[in-house]
Amino acid sequence: MSITASPVTGSTTREAIAASARAMFAERGYTATSVRAIAAAAGVDPALVIRHFVSKEQLFVAVMGWTENPGPELDGPLETLGRTLVAHVLDPARDAERRAYATMVQASDNDAVRASLRDAARVHFIDRLTARLPGADVAVRAELIAAQLGGLMQGWPTIAETLADDADRARVVDLYGASIQALVDAG
Amino acid sequence: MSITASPVTGSTTREAIAASARAMFAERGYTATSVRAIAAAAGVDPALVIRHFVSKEQLFVAVMGWTENPGPELDGPLETLGRTLVAHVLDPARDAERRAYATMVQASDNDAVRASLRDAARVHFIDRLTARLPGADVAVRAELIAAQLGGLMQGWPTIAETLADDADRARVVDLYGASIQALVDAG
DNA sequence: GTCTATACGCTGATAGAC
DNA sequence: GTCTATCAGCGTATAGAC
């Protein structure tokens, strides 16, 4: 690993590929985005994309993966954790992350993508939540809460269509939060 | 393996294509299953697959879609609806249906597949549930319950790995059922 | 009306020369 | 490191034989 002037980036080319890949995958999904299109948008040769990232699926995982951000806040009070989690997930500022999750799920037709998604959810969320939950069956309950949040993120575009205003969005936070809270308190 | 008698429109060839498509999509997913492989398994020419079903995505929707079965039982008592729904969804006898759902979600990278999935969920489940729920915000609550069940079906293979025995499965029905029941009662 | 043969333009990926 | 050339496989269209 050579160290260059910039802290995070390696080569400029690699960065350019990653940037256009991130944008195109997010906008059009995995299948509809071709390696050639990514290369064209980045102004490089298609073969370079593979040279740098080994395969399209590894590029996707590298670029869409739950890389750095800490996952939902789990440090708040247990009594309101359900609500906190839902508010976090539906936060308009986190739109891009939510879309990235949905994009990964919809690309999980692919084995490597599915495995990466499961591992990331485990490390960044389920294990930490398991440690945080009180009472019995903590591992199962953490898994179930993750399933509920996954369903919410996945279904959110459809759900949002049926909402009239921001008050309705707040109502969703209340309703879904209370439902998850039942799992937090179930131990 | 014999092919059943043709219904009104069906030719034997069409049936054979549908049968092998259903099996291969279920086993390997959408992307990994090629039109040519379906044709080979059915013993027909690849072009015939397209002739009969117009496109790969339409074949997938026709064959994997929520075609006939009535969707979850919504006619039981409201007081235990949450539990009933979860028990229905996790019923080992319904393994194939659950897998089909997950396969469709994972193929929903594709616009037509995603649209079909959303429409089917609406017609077969959400609209009926909306009519059944008491109180306020019934449409939103029905949508949220659908999201929770979707998350459960999607996450079930992973969840099942963390369960030790059938008692744990029963515990999941209790826990998740109670959580959904909170949405049923929230009106 | 089925069905076969062939072909087109795309895909992700590789080998090897600069 | 980068580019050229090329690969086998994909979904699909079409022309024409039964």
Based on the model shown, name its key terms:
homodimer; 187 residues; mainly alpha; Arc Repressor Mutant, subunit A; 2 domains; 9 helices; 0% strand; elongated; DNA-binding
- How many runs of DSSP E, i.e. beta strands of chain A? 0
Can you tell me the overall shape of chain A? Answer: elongated
* Structural domain tally of chain A: 2
What structural class is derived from the secondary structure elements of chain A? Answer: mainly alpha
Order of helix and strand elements from N to C terminus of chain A = HHHHHHHHH
The oligomerization state is homodimer
Give structural notes.
Chain A is mainly α. Chain A folds into two domains: 12-64, Homeodomain-like (Arc Repressor Mutant, subunit A, Orthogonal Bundle), CATH 1.10.10; 78-184, no CATH class. Chain A is 69% helix and 0% strand. Chain A contains nine helices and no strands. The first copy, chain A, has helices spanning 12-28, 35-42, 46-53, 56-64, 81-90, 95-106, 111-132, 138-161, 166-184. In chain A, helix 8 packs antiparallel against helix 9 (166-184). The radius of gyration of chain A is 19 Å and the shape is elongated. The interface between A and B is large, with 43 and 43 residues. The first copy, chain A, binds a DNA duplex (18 and 18 nucleotides) through residues 11, 13, 34-36, 44-48, 50-51, 55-56.
